[in-house]
Design brief:
By secondary structure, the chain is mostly helical. The protein has helices spanning 2-7, 24-33, 49-57, 73-77, 83-102, and strands at residues 13-15, 39-43, 61-64.
């Protein structure tokens, strides 16, 4: 999360719905340094209410609850310990590429 926060200053949307290993400090760091961030999708990942309030206080919408259209992330876990991380990286790159095209 530190790398995201310090290198992706133009990040607008962060989807961490299936990322159960994101720490409170990681979410805080991204909210602090990504000044253009407008939406964080946390799904059912649990973060303290005071942290989510702080994020929202920075003008970032926090979307909670089950995703409307779930992807089958469990199938990527079968790829090995880095399978889900690899898929997240691919999806992240797609999102970043699309964001550049929208500019």
């Amino acid at each position: 999360m530190k790398t995201i926060a310090t290198t992706l200053k133009d990040l607008c949307i962060l989807d961490i719905r299936f990322c159960s290993k994101i720490s409170n400090a990681g979410l805080f760091t991204v909210a602090k340094y990504c000044k253009k961030l407008k939406l964080v999708e946390v799904g059912n990942v649990q973060f303290p209410a005071n942290l989510l309030s702080l994020v929202e206080g920075r003008g970032i919408k926090v979307k909670k609850g089950a995703p409307e259209a779930q992807t089958n992330h469990k199938q990527f876990a079968n790829l090995g310990p880095s399978g889900a991380d690899l898929m997240d990286g691919i999806l992240f790159e797609i999102d970043e590429t699309m964001a550049h095209r929208l500019k």
